[in-house]
Amino acid sequence: ICCRLIVVARQMSELGAGTGPGPMASKRAHHGGELSDVGGGVDGASGGQVAEAQGPTQAASARRVSVRLDYLDWLRLLMVMAVVYAHTAVSGLRGGGGFNAQWLVDDRTLYFDSSYPAAMLRAGADGQPDGPSPYAIRWVSIIRQWCLPLLFWVSGAAVGCSYRGGVPRGLAKLVGFSLIGMSFNAVLWFLSPRINECLVDMPECAGKGVLFDFSICGRAGMAFAIVFQMWYTILLFALTLANWPMFAAVYGAAGGAMLAAQWVINVGLLYAPLLFLAGSKIPSPMRLLAELAGLDALFVAVLALNAPRVGQGWRPSWMPVRLLHYLLAGVVIIQFGALRFADEMKHIGPAYLLYGLTGFNRFFGLGFVMTHDRQVGPTKIDTAQPLLSRAWPVMLLLVTAVAPSTNWDVAGMLTYPFFADCVDRCLYVAGAVALMFILDRVSRGVQCMPLPNVLGQTSLLLYLIHPVLITVLLWSGRRSVMHVWLLSVSTVAIFMALFELSRSSFGRKSGAPKLPKDFDNLSVMSSPLSTRNRILSDSGETSGEDSTGSSSEAR
């Protein structure tokens, strides 16, 4: 109490002298067993950043602490659940909320209007509508805009939390996780008829499989059926390794040469080979390569303005860090939305892979940069102070302008659409970018409760085995998308809860074999798949206890 009174008295004296930073400049936050000075009105337990300590005495005594970004764990769990729902909806079901058409109209509200069937007949429709469109069309159409971009953004943020120079950690675990998932998928494929046309409830496929008469992803062939959802972790491994130079330069472990190397890697190793393989599928390959190279150079140049050992001193004083983030976001929108990768996308091929790689790589890098700038320097200063969010009500108009249509248009692949019109693509990508800036700013000022450990492990196991669960549930006769989805999620959650309960109750007492301590999150904290998103001190070590009260080593 005495110490607190002294601090308050000092603040009041500074305010009285006109030299203090204001009443919201300093808060005391207790997190992870450490007391830390938190500035700028940022809640140390929610946004999780140690901001600039006010005054020379406080700056000198600022402590390095480890702080969790719990909202990243929640986002990862929710996005995985969304992916499972989408995979269930397009698994081949012809009813119960499933859909497999190229495009569908969200006519659910119209169907219950008595004038709608007659209007459809006058418009030349064949017969009466069979029924209202399923809610899945609306939900998947909305969430597809930002689901996978947000997953890559979260993965980049996870690296940004704990990268402290050197080789990014967690790469080997990504490889192992991918191989395990593809092994499960391979078993499913070889137990199915191994015929692309064999979907659910097709009589002509009865008895043609070893165990199952269908495949939930067989339309794209064996290779896709085996890789299936694990393309995400494979690409995550590649992007983590490919963006290593950017990590080092932004953190300050390397200089401008690494940013130049980043540009060479992107253009020479990522873009050029896929452009060559795409051939005539891309209308103007050399022009596209020049546009990609130019936009990559712009992205690197903006990064250089805030890189400690490159151009941080060149940045004008009137240019805040948040403005640099907006510039990077503009590059993301143009590179992912405005460029002409093809006239249309109908199949997975080099052109579509180039399109997806370009966009997801940008979201991955944006997540790293935005999160890194929350914890700059020995005192972990949050340099990304509010800019547009100071007039946050304008977000209502922005969100309206970039909202997606609820009509279903596959526009290439379920993964991410490639709309025919450039403006539609740019608005679609801008919607995903806007959501990430909203979440990033909200996370700095609103406390997010820690994700229960059981749910964190549920997200990883669910992503790994959900094709098995969907297949088994469909094989058992379930024909509702909602039922299959809920049963899949609840089955994994119950299993993980029982596993945690048995391990805590009997594991240590009975000497039962235990899984390695890294199994729970695959991980070191810098792994893009990690369920721990803790900001580390410059020494790379965590201090104190985490938000649940247990030490990081014990957990």
Whole-angstrom Rg:
25 Å
Compute the separation of the termini in Å: 33 Å
Note the overall shape: globular
Structural class: mainly alpha
H/E element string? HEEHEHEHHHHHHHHHHHHHEHHHE
Strand content: under 5%
**Residue share in helix:** 40-55%
Q: What strand order characterises the main sheet?
A: 1-2
Low-confidence stretches: 12-65, 509-526, 537-555
Mean pLDDT: 80
Tell me about the largest β-sheet. 2 strands, antiparallel
Q: Would you report the number of β strands?
A: 6
**Individual helix count:** 19
Give structural notes.
The strands form three sheets. The chain has a two-stranded antiparallel sheet. Strands 3-6 form a two-stranded antiparallel ribbon. It has 555 residues and is mainly alpha-helical. It has helices at residues 2-17, 56-61, 70-89, 108-111, 116-122, 135-143, 147-162, 171-191, 222-227, 231-242, 244-251, 256-278, 285-304, 321-338, 350-372, 395-401, 422-445, 453-475, 481-510; strands at 26-31, 34-39, 67-68, 103-104, 408-409, 534-535. It is globular. Helix 13 (285-304) packs antiparallel against helix 14. The chain is 53% helix and 4% strand.
